Amino acid sequence: MTDHTHDPAARSWVASADHPDTDFPLQNLPLGVFTLRGREQDTPRIGVAIGDQVFDLLQALPLLPALPPEVREALCSPRLNALFALGRPAIGAVRHAVWRLLEAGFAERQRAADALRPQSDVVLHLPCDIGDYTDFFASPNHARNTFNLFRPGQTFLPNFVHLPIAYHGRASSIVPAGAPLRRPWGQVRIHPDGSPQVVPTRKLDIEVELGFYVGQGNPLGQPVPLSEAEQHLAGVCVLNDWSARDIQAFESQPLGPFQSKNFCSSLAPWVVTLEALAPFRAAAAPRESAAPPLQPYLEHPADAAAGAFDIRLETSLRTEAMRQRGEPPVPITRSRFAHDVCWTPAQMLTHHTLGGCNLRPGDLLGSGTISGPEPGTEGSLLELTWNGARPLALPHGESRTFLLDGDEVTLTAWCEREGFRRIGLGRCTTLIRPALEAPY
Ligand code: CA
After folding, report:
1. 74 plus 38 within the same structural domain
2. Are 215 and 361 in contact (CB under 8 A)?
3. What's the pLDDT at 382?
4. Which among 125, 148, 183 is the end of a domain?
5. What is the pLDDT of residue 31?
6. pLDDT tens readout for residues 118-142
7. What phi, psi does 64 have (nearest 5°)?
């Protein structure tokens, strides 16, 4: 449901929020957690991005007297978990209250202006204590590409059309944008028939994903029906699920990814709420034409019609040489969530809880790599370069198969639709650092 907070004609008194290119107009109002630059040891505060500023909700609290006491208390927390635990009505109440303060007609704008901080003056932290991280595998194009690469001649495994496949990932190594990534060591079989060697990965890769934060949790043993699943989702962020393909190739049989994935995942620090995404709802990508009917627990008319979001993603790369020449990053791939992923976030959440698994506020559900069907829309270098067989051409004669030390990768995402204001999810930029000289 859209309302006055989505009105494209609404303006903010914060001038930068009205710039056509900003990710953070008045219609977005994503939540994050920050400290002032140079004071990173301070207790973080919850803020809202508006234009090129952060609106400090702790400082603005006296201007928000109508919020229920439990919501006001949650806004005093150093993380978003407590607010998310209160569910969608609380998140929606914060959105409406903050919108009113930042809208052009607000009478006490001078008092509100005291709570603004330039984004260049703050450090953004992980917005939640992420207790658990689950990563899905839900893009048919990605599934098809990886099967063609590693099991030529086969179609997907039969489970793909019946359920959103996932594995339990590692929450402790999730870091916010800007934190550098050190190339990991691992066991790699360099010659197909030889013994593995312990080396720094030679196939460091991106995975272009979205991360969905769990809002209100569910008790252990209590599944969440699809009709209620979105009440348990708080918002979305850009997620880069780093992968080491050579480590993955050796370790992932018969179990799932381990060292090839658990060294790091990076995310953009803003949480764009489901409320902000209301104008950008869409149906998920169709499943295979020959796919069997859905199990009833994964089927609901509202979810089928508009359970996904038309979020566009772009990844760009800047090599060390490009940085030295002062050149901007070059885009290497673009994809779209609703077009390229066949399961909705609500279906993922419902399936996650089918056996009674409890989700907790701030848990993160990764969408899985989002790959489109066309060249240049693949969500990993594995697919873009066909496991290194087709190097990507970069400016000045450089090329890449997988990432080299000194490379800088930026994921960004946004939503745009005729009749609504464009909103962005922010950016996730990471610099690749060399491996340790020796792991032990
Ligand atoms: Ca992944």
Report:
1. yes
2. yes
3. 97
4. 125
5. 99
6. 999 999 999 999 999 999 999 999 9
7. -120, 50
Predicted pLDDT at 281:
98
E-assigned strand segments in 91-178: 116-118, 122-124, 133-137, 165-168, 174-176
Q: What is the CA(369)–ligand 1 centre distance, in A?
A: 5
User: Quick one: pLDDT at residue 154?
Assistant: 77
349 CA from centroid of ligand 1 (Å): 16
In a domain, 301, yes or no: yes
Which tokens is 344 given? Answer: 């909705």
Q: pTM for this one?
A: 0.97
204 CA to middle of ligand 1, Å?
Answer: 13
80 & 140 share domain = no
Q: Does 142 participate in catalysis according to the annotation?
A: yes
146 Cα: distance to centroid of ligand 1 (angstroms): 12
- Give the CATH number of the domain where residue 418 resides: 3.90.850.10
Catalytic residue among 142, 232, 300, 352: 142
Question: What range defines the domain where residue 17 resides?
Answer: 4-125
Residues 331 and 275 in one domain: yes
CATH of the domain at 121: 2.30.30.230
- Number of CB atoms found within 10 A of residue 228's CB: 15
